[in-house]
C-alpha cells in the first residue's frame, strides 16, 4: 500500500500544489518555493525529501538509493494534508485578512488625524464653528 514510485509520488504532490495554491515552477522544489509559507514545515520537509529522491533517480548510479517506506510515508503525509485544503476557504481568509488590515489602517489614520488636530488646536476651533 505504501509502495509508490517516487516519480508518481512527486507528480501527485506537484499536481496538488498547482491545484490548491496555483504554484508555479518546473519541478517540485520550485513549486514548494512558490507555495511559500502556506505549507507547514513538516509537509515542506516531506515534499523536499520526495524532490531529493526524484533528483537522485536522474543519475543511474544513485537511482536506487532511497528508502521506499520513507517515500511512501512522505507521499501519504503530503497528499493527506493537501487534499484537506479548501481553495474557497483560503480565498475567504485572504479577503478577510485584507479587509482587517485595511480597517486597522483606517482607524490608525483617523486616530493620527485626531491627534494632530488636537495638537494644532484646530479641534476646538472646528467644534466652536459648528456649534459644539
SSE topology:
Layout: H1 6-21, H2 28-35, H3 41-57, H4 68-84, H5 87-120, H6 122-129
Helix pairs in contact: 1-2, 1-3, 1-4, 3-4
Order of helices and strands: HHHHHH
| Estimated share of beta-strand residues | under 5%
Number of helical regions: 6
SSE-based structural type: mainly alpha
The quaternary state of the protein chains shown equals single chain
3D shape? elongated
Biggest beta-sheet profile: none
Number of separate strands: 0
Give the proportion of residues in helices.
over 70%
Any low-confidence stretches, pLDDT <50, length ≥5?
none
How does this model look, in words?
The protein is mostly helical. The protein has two domains: 1-85, no CATH class; 86-132. It has six helices and no strands. Helix 1 (6-21) packs parallel to helix 2 (28-35). The longest helix has 34 residues, at 87-120. It starts with 5 loop residues before the first helix and ends with a helix.
Summarize the structure.
By secondary structure, this protein is an all-alpha fold. It has six helices and no strands.
Task: Give me some keywords for this one.
6 helices; 2 domains
Amino acid at each position: 500500500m505504501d509502495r509508490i514510485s517516487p516519480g508518481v509520488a512527486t507528480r501527485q504532490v506537484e499536481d496538488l500544489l498547482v491545484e490548491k495554491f496555483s504554484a508555479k515552477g518546473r519541478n517540485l522544489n520550485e513549486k514548494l518555493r512558490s507555495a511559500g509559507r502556506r505549507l507547514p514545515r513538516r509537509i515542506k520537509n516531506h515534499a523536499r525529501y520526495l524532490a531529493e529522491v526524484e533528483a537522485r533517480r536522474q543519475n543511474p548510479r544513485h537511482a536506487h538509493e532511497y528508502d521506499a517506506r520513507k517515500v511512501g510515508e512522505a507521499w501519504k503525509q503530503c497528499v493527506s494534508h493537501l487534499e484537506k485544503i479548501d481553495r474557497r476557504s483560503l480565498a475567504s481568509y485572504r479577503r478577510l485578512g485584507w479587509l482587517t488590515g485595511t480597517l486597522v489602517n483606517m482607524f490608525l489614520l483617523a486616530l493620527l488625524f485626531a491627534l494632530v488636530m488636537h495638537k494644532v488646536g484646530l479641534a476646538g476651533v472646528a467644534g466652536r464653528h459648528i456649534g459644539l
